[in-house]
TrEMBL record:
<protein>
    <recommendedName>
        <fullName>Kinesin-like protein</fullName>
    </recommendedName>
</protein>
<comment type="similarity">
    <text>Belongs to the TRAFAC class myosin-kinesin ATPase superfamily. Kinesin family. KIN-5/BimC subfamily.</text>
</comment>
<keyword id="KW-0067">ATP-binding</keyword>
<dbReference type="GO" id="GO:0005874">
    <property type="term" value="C:microtubule"/>
</dbReference>
<feature type="coiled-coil region">
    <location>
        <begin position="575"/>
        <end position="683"/>
    </location>
</feature>
<keyword id="KW-0505">Motor protein</keyword>
<dbReference type="InterPro" id="IPR059182">
    <property type="entry name" value="Khc_C"/>
</dbReference>
<dbReference type="Pfam" id="PF00225">
    <property type="entry name" value="Kinesin"/>
</dbReference>
<keyword id="KW-0206">Cytoskeleton</keyword>
<dbReference type="GO" id="GO:0007018">
    <property type="term" value="P:microtubule-based movement"/>
</dbReference>
<dbReference type="InterPro" id="IPR027417">
    <property type="entry name" value="P-loop_NTPase"/>
</dbReference>
<keyword id="KW-0547">Nucleotide-binding</keyword>
<keyword id="KW-0963">Cytoplasm</keyword>
<dbReference type="InterPro" id="IPR027640">
    <property type="entry name" value="Kinesin-like_fam"/>
</dbReference>
<dbReference type="GO" id="GO:0007010">
    <property type="term" value="P:cytoskeleton organization"/>
</dbReference>
<dbReference type="InterPro" id="IPR036961">
    <property type="entry name" value="Kinesin_motor_dom_sf"/>
</dbReference>
<feature type="domain" description="Kinesin motor">
    <location>
        <begin position="11"/>
        <end position="338"/>
    </location>
</feature>
Amino acid sequence: MQSVDQSSSTNVQVFCRFRPLDDHERSLPNQRFIEILPNSKSVIVHPNKESREDAQFYFDYIFDEFSSQQLVYDKGARSVIEAVMQGFNGTVFAYGQTSSGKTYTMFGPNLDDPEAMGIIPHMITTVFYNIENSDPTNEYTVKVCCFELYLEKIRDLFDTSKENLKIREDKMRGVYLEGLTEIYVSTGEEVHELMKYGHQTRAVGAHRMNNESSRSHLIFSIAVSQTSTEDFTTKVGKLHLIDLAGSEKVDKTGAEGTRLEEAKKINKSLTILGQVITALSEGKRGYIPYRDSKLTRILQDSLGGNSRTSLIITCSPSSWNELETISSLRFGMRAKMIKNTPKVNIESTVGELKLLLAAAKEEIHQKNKKIKRLENNQSQLEESMSMMDFEIDKKYEDVIKELEETRARLSLEISKNSKLNSELSQVQNNYDDLKSQFDALLAQSKLIDEEFQSVEEILKVKEEQIEQLTAFKNSYENGFTTANDAKLKLEQVIIEKDLEIELLRRKLKLSPTAFSEEDKVRQEQKRKEAQEKAIISKYAPSLLDLSMDSQIGDENWRLEKKNLIENLKLRIKQIIDLEIALDDSKNDYNSLENSMNLDAKEAKRRNDHLQRSLEQLTLMYHQLVNQNSALSVEKQILEKKSTRLSEKLKLIETSSAALKGELKRAKEEIDQLKEELNQPNYLKNTMGALAPLIPNSRIKKRIRGGGNQQLLATFAVQAKTYSNLRNSFNQFEVGK
Ligand SMILES: Nc1ncnc2c1ncn2[C@@H]1O[C@H](COP(=O)(O)OP(=O)(O)OP(=O)(O)O)[C@@H](O)[C@H]1O
């Protein structure tokens, strides 16, 4: 069966029904505590205790104690059966505390009285009314089942020997009960009888609040299948009508023993139902605790699933049940928030099945081919993946190896670099030392310069004094030279006169020896002295100067001058020494600076080189890491692809197996039905107690939809069959 989305999601419709006060409640003071507003959509609760505040609740409709069964059905449930007739799933259920009127609402106090009957009998009537009034080209089959959930066990109410049915789930059928009796019916009366039968078979017990309290959750289901004889499409709508057992406060109801056990189980399953509703109302689509109880598993589709659902909250209007009523109203408000997504269920006819079978066969064939192809692809993929894995691993290993080597090289370079750095810092230290020495020398030289300048200034003064003295000496010398020259000239004249005199004497005496020897020696000495002086004055005036100095006799000045000269010489020597030392240190400094510059340049060059290689290595490292992560991503994608392919393959295999199984089951069912049909005592054997009620209950009965003409024609026959059935049923009951 497939579901066709012909509708958007709809909220669960929630109604509220207040029953009249019962005898006990009427005997109490402050009986009523609720106020239904005129729009019949909201109710205000006025709590008795002043400490509690008024609370307002909103519903799709609120039925008061005077609301008729017909009104409750029309407003609260009719739309659901209309949807079921169109192929949707539908659920109507009643929830409320014990003795609040759930059974009254779902079944009614009298199942045969059209005015008193509740929702379930009304539904049955509507189903068959709709069939009878539908287009004659429609063909219907209707099957019903009825079971109860009692003490957490599922009991088949059409075959009570089935006491503990198991819940199963598969893709095709959804949640279902294995082995549950399903009865095909052809008339509303048949369903009516079956409903009564199930209702009577239900576990009922009495307690302080309800003499006929339902101790189980009852589910009555009708599946309506509608086939068009024109296009052979089939829609199947399933309707669940549920009368829940009521929650109870055991101290109020006085439950003991089995009753207490029942109450606990009922309360527990209702608590889980509340949790499911809370989770759904909060939009927790991820985890809903459906599986925590059998009731919620059965209701899975009705709450948050593929179903049009109506919930009727039944309440007591009495303040005696104030807390229970408020709790039920809150439950209803939460349920109102649940969204369901009902879809039309389309089922195939035999003709369609044949076509489907052929199509399925073809599909299976195609899928098998595809599976083979996929298997091949997968093995190829696996092969290439393993090769790829190998290559990736190898590449990865190479990369890692290269990385390790690079790292080793890097650490070597780093240690070299740090060594160079320490050398550099040592050179830097030396340089700093020299620099400070140089600075000290520079400072010293500055001092010397300053001293030198002051000495120069003194020298200047002294030079000026010397110049003055020299000028004085020169003028003095000039005077002396002139006097000396005059003296020399005079002496020369005297010598010449002496010589003339001698000559004259000789002439007179005719003998040269006329001059005495003494005179000759004296004359010679004088001549020599004169000659000497001339020579001295001509060639060595400085000597004269000195002799002059000594002659002028300024002894103090001479001494001072001498000291000054000595001092000057000493200072000059010191300056020269300092200059030499300065030059030396300048040279040292320059050479050091040169060598240092060279070292620093070299270190910088190496450092730059190292920096560059470090950057390159880092780049390479990053590239390798990127390459590696890209490869990992590629690997992951391929793995994911492969997993997806495997999953797809598995899905195809599963769906193909399910399809095969389904086809096999359908075939077996057809064969079995054919076989059963051929057996004369078939019905007696299979239906047991229900056999007299519903003839041929395991056989699909095709009911033609149609106008009233056909209806009238068949009605007589059906009425006769019905009265026959009732007779035989009565006989059967008597005979039991
Ligand atoms: N709307 C109503 N009008 C008149 N009587 C009502 C109405 N609803 C309930 N009652 C009466 O109240 C009593 C309890 O109702 P009912 O058995 O339907 O309650 P319940 O909720 O099914 O209880 P439990 O959970 O114990 O089975 C019955 O006697 C029933 O006839």
